[in-house]
């Protein structure tokens, strides 16, 4: 089990593991074991800016109503922080099987987001992901020199940071306030064997905001992961028409995020 804290030994128990994800801040996710005892171990290094304790709390809350992983262990040491969760049934929406059947995958992503938005109770969630709060954070990070336009999507690279922040100053009116996933890209949806939605993972940014904060990123992700022309199928599975104004706003806000 390379690159993970030795303190995880009692949880892993010498079982076979494989690296399934590596993110841009050095975080790692390993799949450990097989069958009913299969777990996922997320690890993030000190200084990465990723708070797995925050994800632990949000997973525990969401699991009261929704298919999300059960947290089995959480801890930290001098090197980083880890989160161990029980595997859900189903496979990742960007696994080889679903990359070969993208229409089924995007339908599962769309129906899964609708299930989340309809099920998680706004009145019981004390975490905000409001556009106004995110814009304030973007302004703070811009002043500190932490916003990097070179990493933005090509759709936004013609903008200066100042121009982008000006465009974000007035959020569009809320369509429907829901508890959003916070990172609704396709890899965070699990798909059941029959092609239906199987569950959600990586809920560290979950919070209350207009549903288009999720939908804008989820539809964008269909192009990154599967190719053009599938965003309409995702929206149809969700049960909503396109909204170019809200989509454009929340995609730009996403690019200015941490």
Quick structural summary:
This protein has 258 residues and is an alpha+beta fold. Helix content is 36%, strand content 19%.
Q: How big a fraction of the residues is strand?
A: 15-25%
SSE pattern = HEEEHEEEHHHHEEEEHHH
Give the overall average pLDDT.
92
Count of β-strands = 10
- As residue ranges, the low-confidence spans are none
Instruction: Write down the Rg.
Output: 18 Å
CATH architectural grouping of the largest domain: Alpha-Beta Complex
Structure description:
This protein has helices spanning 9-12, 52-62, 96-99, 102-119, 131-143, 161-168, 212-226, 231-238, 244-255, and strands spanning 17-22, 28-32, 39-45, 71-76, 80-86, 91-92, 177-180, 189-191, 197-200, 207-210. By secondary structure, it is of the alpha+beta class. The chain folds into two domains: 6-86, Phosphorylase Kinase, domain 1 (2-Layer Sandwich), CATH 3.30.200.20; 91-255, Aminoglycoside 3'-phosphotransferase, Chain: A, domain 2, CATH 3.90.1200.
Q: What are the main properties of this structure?
A:
single chain; 258 residues; alpha+beta; 5-stranded antiparallel sheet; 3-stranded antiparallel sheet; 10 strands; 36% helix; globular
List the helices and strands and how they pair.
Layout: H1 9-12, E1 17-22, E2 28-32, E3 39-45, H2 52-62, E4 71-76, E5 80-86, E6 91-92, H3 96-99, H4 102-119, H5 131-143, H6 161-168, E7 177-180, E8 189-191, E9 197-200, E10 207-210, H7 212-226, H8 231-238, H9 244-255
Antiparallel strand pairs: 1-2, 2-3, 3-5, 4-5, 6-8, 7-10, 8-9
Helix pairs in contact: 4-7, 4-8, 7-8, 7-9
């Amino acid at each position: 089990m390379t690159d993970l804290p030795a303190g995880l030994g009692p949880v892993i128990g010498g079982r076979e593991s494989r690296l399934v994800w590596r993110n841009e801040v050095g975080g790692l996710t390993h799949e450990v074991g097989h069958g009913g005892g299969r777990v996922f171990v997320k690890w993030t290094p000190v200084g990465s800016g990723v708070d797995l304790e925050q994800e632990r709390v949000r997973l525990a809350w969401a699991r009261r109503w929704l298919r999300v992983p059960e947290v089995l262990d959480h801890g930290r040491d001098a090197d980083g922080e880890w989160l161990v969760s029980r595997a859900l049934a189903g496979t990742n929406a960007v696994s080889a099987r679903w990359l070969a059947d993208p229409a089924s995958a995007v339908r599962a992503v769309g129906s899964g987001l609708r299930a989340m938005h309809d099920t998680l109770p706004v009145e019981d969630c004390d975490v905000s992901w409001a556009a106004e709060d995110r814009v304030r954070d973007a302004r703070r990070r811009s002043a500190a020199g932490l916003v990097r336009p070179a990493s933005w999507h090509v759709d936004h690279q013609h903008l200066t940071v100042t121009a982008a922040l000006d465009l974000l100053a007035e959020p569009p009116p809320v369509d429907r306030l829901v508890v959003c996933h916070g990172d609704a890209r396709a890899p965070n949806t699990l798909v059941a064997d029959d092609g239906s939605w199987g569950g959600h993972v990586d809920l560290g940014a979950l919070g209350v905001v207009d549903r288009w904060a999720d939908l804008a990123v989820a539809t964008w992700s269909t192009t990154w992961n599967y190719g053009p022309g599938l965003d309409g199928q995702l929206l149809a599975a969700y049960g909503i028409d396109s909204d170019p104004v809200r989509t454009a706003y929340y995609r730009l806000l996403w690019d200015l995020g941490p």
